[in-house]
Amino acid sequence: MKSKTKASLFLVELLMDLLLFAFCAAICTQIFVAASRQTKASENLNRAVREATSVAELYKVGSDQFPDEIDFYFDEDWQVASEQEWNYVLTVSVDREKDVAAIIVAELRETTDESYLLEKIYSLTASALSNDLARSIKQGGD
Q1: What tens digit of pLDDT does each residue of 81-107 get?
Q2: What confidence score (pLDDT) does residue 96 get?
């Protein structure tokens, strides 16, 4: 009888250990998934800042050559994409009266009802340089 009791206690203890291990594994999995999402969001923010800053620098030097509104499309790897297949869009809206450009980078997100929405990742405003300064930069600082 004692051996049966010892065996059943051993099995109960083993079962409790397995449950504890499964619980800890579930928590660790959730932590890794959250870290992966946060890493992707951080990478997207860094890339959005880089792309927006590049366009802002171009606008500062050549504001007179920019259209009033222009969109640049990127795929999921931030490579230039077509208007039909894109995941990110960088929109430039120029205000000619104030001589500034609003630059917005957004991500295309699918919602639960299978529709899509744009979620802003980053935005900035760029002011054009004075004509003399822009001309000097274009000529190499002479």
Answers
A1: 998 889 999 999 999 888 899 999 999
A2: 87
Closest Cα partner for 119 from 59, 15, 24, 48?
48
**Separation of alpha carbons 83 and 105, rounded Å:** 15
One-letter amino acid of 100: V
Low-confidence ranges of the chain (pLDDT < 70): 1-3, 130-142
Take residue 35 and report the two structure tokens written for it: 């870290």
Task: Give the angle subtended at the CA of 116 by the CAs of 126 and 92, to the nearest 5°.
Answer: 15
pTM of the model: 0.72
Q: How many residues does the chain have?
A: 142
> In which residue are the tokens 């000619």 written?
96
Nearest residue to 73 via CA among 61, 56, 85, 64 = 85
* C-alpha to C-alpha distance for 111 and 66, rounded to whole angstroms: 34
User: Which structural domain, as residue segments, surrounds residue 83?
Assistant: 2-138
